[in-house]
Specification:
The complex is a heterodimer of chains A (113) and B (110). With 113 residues, chain A is mostly beta strands. Chain A is built from no helices and eleven strands. In chain A, strands 2, 4, 5, 6, 9, 10 and 11 form a seven-stranded mixed β-sheet that branches. Chain A has a four-stranded antiparallel β-sheet with strand order 1-3-8-7, with no helix packed on it. The mean pLDDT of chain A is 93. The chains are: A mainly beta (113), B mainly beta (110).
Chain lengths: 113, 110
């Protein structure tokens, strides 16, 4: 099992460009998450999907959109990138609400110039 | 007040010593508590979880939970240089969202 995979690993964008970050999990988990991590800020939730077909905003959703394509895949889109979106993005999945740990992908390091 | 607070560190301990990492949380309804370890440039990985008041031991790691004081801690015995990392405290209230602290950097000196 690959666990949680993310593509790309690194990306440099210019202000105003768009891109989609891809995430997939092969653990048959129901819920999936997108976080960003900035120095001194910890992990902040952007969007999550409790189950296939549903998505909800997290703490910092502005400037992002998501799609839960199927049970395996959850993508994050930046429509018009801004320098404030320079960050490390992690995708995670969890099998059920409440008690189970989250499994994280390797992350995408995004720089917006 | 942040929902999950941790001292950012760095916490520096000599090899073989006990490292004590602390975390406080604001939501009294919180039900499950996690400690993740994150090496520089890597993703977080779970090392301990605890649901009930008291201590939970796993090898060199002990998680301690005190719900009355809204406090959770992680003890690392016989600290090794390989334990040098950032440790993230995470709290779940029973729903789908988990709140993470900003992390404590631990440095174990050989």
């Amino acid at each position: 099992n690959a666990g949680v995979t993310q593509t790309p690993k690194f990306q440099v964008l210019k202000t105003g460009q768009s891109m989609t970050l891809q995430c997939a999990q092969d653990m048959n988990h129901n819920s999936m998450y997108w976080y960003r991590q900035d120095p001194g800020m910890g992990l902040r939730l952007i969007y999550y999907s409790a189950s296939e077909g549903t998505t909800d905003k997290g703490e910092v959703p502005n400037g992002y959109n998501v799609s839960r394509l199927n049970k395996r895949e959850f993508s994050l889109r930046l429509e018009s990138a801004a320098p404030s979106q320079t960050s490390v993005y992690f995708c995670a999945s969890k099998s059920r609400e409440g008690y189970n740990e989250q499994f994280f992908g390797p992350g995408t390091r995004l720089t917006v110039l | 007040q942040k929902e999950v607070e941790q001292n950012s560190g760095p916490l520096s301990v000599p090899e073989g010593a006990i490292a004590s990492l602390n975390c406080t949380y604001s939501d009294r309804g919180s039900q499950s508590f996690f400690w993740y370890r994150q090496y520089s440039g890597k993703s977080p990985e779970l090392i301990m979880f605890i649901y009930s008041n008291g201590d939970k031991e796993d090898g060199r790691f002990t998680a301690q939970l005190n719900k009355a004081s809204q406090y959770v801690s992680l003890l690392i015995r016989d600290s090794q240089p390989s334990d040098s990392a950032t440790y993230l405290c995470a709290v779940n209230t029973g729903g789908f969202k988990t709140i993470f602290g900003a992390g404590t950097r631990l440095f174990v000196k050989a």
